[in-house]
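Subject: Protein record for review, amino acid sequence with backbone structure tokens
How to read it: Take the token row as a discrete description of the fold.
Enclosed: The protein record, placed directly beneath this head.
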Amino acid sequence: MSQIVSSEIDTADIVIDSSDLRGIARSAQARFERERVRYFPRILASNRGACDEQVGRFCSWYDEGDWYPRLELAQIRELRQKMLVVLDSLQVLLPADDWLLGQRVWYLSESQRWEEALAMARSCGKVELWWCNALEAFSLHGLQRYIEAERSFSIALDLMDPEQALKWKVPSWILDDDGKESFRKVEGSSSESLVNALEWLWFLADPLYLVEGNDRKTEHYARWTVATIRGAARNPYRVSWGKDLDELTVRHGWELGWERSSDSGFGLGDQVIGHKHPEGRDFIPSGRVLNTPSIAEQKDMTADHERPRSLYAPAYAPILLPMEGQVALFPRGNNVVIVGTHFLPADTTRHADHDHPLPWLDPGTQSGMLDRAGMFLRNIDGEQITSIQSIGDIEGGFSLEVPSGRYLLSTETWSPQQRRAGRLRMVLESHPVPDDIASLSDVLMLHPSSDAPEVLEFAISQALSQPEIITGETFAMAWEVYGLGFRSETLTFEVSISQTNQSVVRKITEFLRLTSRVQPVSISWEEPGPLVPGPVFRYLNLDLPTLNAGKYEIRLVLRTAGRGEVTSTRAFRVLDKD
């Protein structure tokens, strides 16, 4: 995401009195911001066209194009260091000046000197205590110490002015209309209602439960800290800081790079373009999900980057992609076994195949860290979280047995060295299975095997990590049957596979009988029912004729005398060979 001023430049945004010490500090800061603009890369023209969004004086675009963060020029680093020397010396003479401390911490963070920023924040002298804690939390967030950062932000919020604390806490700018309405209601009720609403919001917004702490929550407060620091200081845009820059900072974060354009398209001459992270995505849940999580679909839980309310790229995994694994439910009386498969999605982002450095993917401090995966379940009607994790593995399957109910499911993989992750997040619901009513589990697709598993636990290790095969490949399927064994009966199974994405032209030609109708592949068989009640596991190797590339559906039907038929389906894809 990038932004540029689209209205008249206000070059006299800060009045500086150089006769006092703070005036000298402000003069040094303003001089640095003026001078570094000269070293920003110049682009000849902007071909972006109309703004994706106009926020106050700023025109914003969500598509960064081929821009990526470059290494900062040595001249800018030297200018910043000279300024910091001045500010450091003046802080000794003005130990209670919160503006000075904020600028020093901010400019150290710009240089990625987070440890120094943390040490500076912790030796804050006579500065207001809430501001010391906010700056400490900001630095801890930059160091990816999210649990400590959240603790320090909590202290800062408790100590700051209540009106300001409420403004920081209620994230109105990053919510859609339904979400804003939801928070307007709880703001007018008890403080406990607001606390619960915020807890649920930030739990849903957390990018990866595999990573300790909630970095999307601490990022929100870090952005408010940055907006407060920069609000009373000179900035590269050459305009006074206002509500529009507050909003853009809180929604999309601070700039990671800059450019100058000789033709902004607004007739304002040489303009500065600020760039945010090129891999930013929107992790904030919609109001629909916040208000009625039980109706949320998988797409509602996918981190989006097209026309978002807010953008964020986790430092530990800027490439965080949808992971289309399998999820299958296997009832166990009043409980349910939930099976989820996982894998690390391929990097399909814009810069993946570009021949230039990708600084946001440099392993850095994550070098040598092992890959990991996990599956997490939270009961929507409570706060209990059940999870399973593994280290050194990014492909496979997990299972968890929990009481039947409504759950938020998150299956995740993370490769720290590649700074890439995958996530499937969805809401699912299960109900207890009546004893004497025939029913089927979900279908689980497996790798074919001559050594057929006899129970679900052994089948999970053979599960396909994603519901797809290559043309010419075969696969197997597994399922369970319930509600049988109370009397002698014969079971009739039917398995059919049909294509679900035929083109409109194909459908018309079939209707007109210009081409033959493609018949679903199907098989059926009979077998005696079980002699005792309990789950009945079944496995089937499917030796199918070659399926063309496309989308398909497996349909499993169970028929028994005197009962209605029951069905279970599984969608899958067939891909062409490379």
Remarks:
- The longest strand covers residues 550-560.
- The radius of gyration is 29 Å.
